Amino acid sequence: MLVRRWSIAAGLIVVGAVLAGCSHTAIHGEGVRHEQVIRGTLGINGEDNEVRVLAGSDVAKLSVLGEDNYVFVEDGARVGKVEIVGEDNHVSLPGTIVVEFSSIGKDNRLTYRR
Fold first, then answer.
1. Where are the domains of the chain?
2. How would residue 59 be classed by pLDDT, with cut points 50, 70 and 90?
């Protein structure tokens, strides 16, 4: 009986997460060009990638790991947190977004556009 209750509780948690729109988009590689409306978290891993986060996106956390990656967040997208680990990465945000930001490595940039 106890096992059944735990199974039901675990199932409800999974269903709740799916209904809440929790998801993770992962982009891995070298020289990848990608654009998408993203909901949940976005992880970019590799080097020389260009990613465009389209208007209408709702990104809780944007993580960049690698070198020479460029992320452009369009006006009308929402981003809560940006984390960068590596070198020479750049995230460009509209000036209307305020994010929590952390960076490890050299020459990583977070810029705000007008």
1. 23-113
2. very high
